[in-house]
Here is the input.
Amino acid sequence: IATLQTLLDPAAGAFVPPPPTGESLLLPDWTAPVLFQDAFRVIDFQNGRGVGYFAQYSYSVDPITSLIYTFTGLTSDGLYYVTLQKAVTSDLLPDIDMSGFDQDDWEAFYDGFDLYVEQITASLLAAEPDDFSPSLAPLDALIRSLEIVSPSLD
Here is the structure.
């Protein structure tokens, strides 16, 4: 939560995303480690703020073939954690045929993984909501419409 609070603090200045393969922002954390989380964008909702991003989780360095669109945020008062996750597909992800990979191919893929992630991130950041299935437009609209209220103690 502290990492998320720091990222979303408007007093901290411009939003600086965490590294693509760093600490997961999702609570509870996935069982598998973060292979990729990037293409961050700040999304405000009625009484809070969060970040929308794409993630993939894996125990190994594999081609990124599917994405989890994730929103993770906090209410303005810091009392509530808000999250949304949805598996999405896109033709923007490179199609890598691994069936013929040998040891040298895997080593080359591993050595070039940072550049591979940078290219995917650039594609995702330039994408339109309808470049994904399902479209991100209704998901983002749902997020923006959220208003979290404390339960009444009547």
